[in-house]
Amino acid sequence: MSAQIPIAVRHRVSERAQKALDVVAKFVEEDCIPADPVLEAQIGVGDKRWQSHPPVIEDLKKKARSLGLWNMFLPKGHYKESPGFTNLEYGLMAEWLGKSRIASEAVNCSAPDTGNMEVLAKYGNDAQKAKWLKPLMDGEIRSAFLMTEPQVASSDARNIELKIVRDGDHYVLNGQKWWSSGAGDPRCKVYIVMGKNDAGSKDAYRQQSVIIVPADTEGITIHRMLSVYGYDDAPHGHGQITFKNVRVPVGNMVLGEGRGFEIIQGRLGPGRIHHAMRTIGASERALEWMLMRINDPRKTTFGKKLREHGVILEWVAKSRLEIDAARLVVLNAAIKMDEQGPKAALKEIAQAKVLVPQMALTVIDRAVQSFGGAGVSQDTPLANMWAQIRTLRLADGPDEVHLQQMGRNENRRGKAVAEKIAAQKAKTEQLMKQYGVKQTELGSNIKRSNN
């Protein structure tokens, strides 16, 4: 809640946002977290899970809207549809939303809808906004984002192969996609699809386009839903989909042909921050479960309560340090986006994207270990949290891609750093001569005389 905002950023959080943050925290803790098991129960078992729409979601949506908690993610100053919160302010709210499976959807701030709404709000024309953005922002429909493909290394988006070919007043799409998150939901009515429309372009970053495809268009086949460490995330799902001569109107092209990379970079930057802050929230919840476990008077090992073992308290302390440090990295990226935009904050966004999931997996794993066998079972939320967050090291670009780019950019300082150090050494030699001294050799023998 607002009292827990890090002092380093508190002056950047408006009074209105602080009040909203308190409402979000109360809503998540008192309404959403208790509703998570209800959601699971209402989804049920078997094939019917893919057709389910748990009533508890709509009830929470109604309450969220009555509390003024709706579409908080569109940043102030960047979208006319924005509710008026900065990336930093929403990031603090997203942390609380990350503590519950149901919370983000309850306030209409869940992926991939948030990213898709950002695409339509920033790059869509009036007709596209009226047809797709409005119902998404009203929570009437859901969407999916289709970029990754099974037959190529999609971590390099230049490899994308799904073909987009102009044919009169339509585009024809042929190809396949997978990890199409959200495609399993019966409420998913629209896909935001990245494909290649000009493979012959000399500029490899101008070959791709983004196009809006209604989910019920003829020629689309959903073959299966992929699981994440055994979890299939019904009814949301992660679909493997093929397009065979799928025809969509020319008016569905977003921004224009060859603008795909520009759009995707604009989409993924804020999304990575949202993921990171929700992951901070999941880490906090994992730490809470660990604290509950180690203070359970029934759980003793070798004659001691769990909290009395030094290694356990070390886990707690390290988790606290790691969560707090990671939070500041993410909030720093959010501030940079607020002040200079996502493109200027690529380094800071990448730092958060790489650091936070790795931290969270470590914290969650400690909590799992503290529970023993129960930690890997369905009796705690920990196993599911670990599985979901593990995917973030792959989603929105694998760690290695971001690390390579960060390393390359950091290494560009090499020449300047070498010149600086050489100049410092030269100055040292000059000072040695000036003061008539010589460099002391480390480890040299010291001769003492007591005469």
TrEMBL record:
Signal peptide: none annotated. GO terms for molecular function: acyl-CoA dehydrogenase activity; flavin adenine dinucleotide binding. GO terms for cellular component: cytoplasm. Its cofactor is FAD. Keywords: FAD, Flavoprotein, Oxidoreductase. GO terms for biological process: fatty acid beta-oxidation using acyl-CoA dehydrogenase. Residues 16-140 form the Acyl-CoA dehydrogenase/oxidase N-terminal domain. InterPro entries: Acyl-CoA_dehydrogenase, Acyl-CoA_Oxase/DH_mid-dom, Acyl-CoA_Oxase/DH_mid-dom_sf, AcylCo_DH-like_C, AcylCo_DH/oxidase_C, AcylCoA_DH/ox_N, AcylCoA_DH/ox_N_sf, AcylCoA_DH/oxidase_NM_dom_sf. Residues 258-409 form the Acyl-CoA dehydrogenase/oxidase C-terminal domain. Residues 144-246 form the Acyl-CoA oxidase/dehydrogenase middle domain. Belongs to the acyl-CoA dehydrogenase family. Homodimer. This is Acyl-CoA dehydrogenase NM domain-like protein. It comes from Parathielavia hyrcaniae.
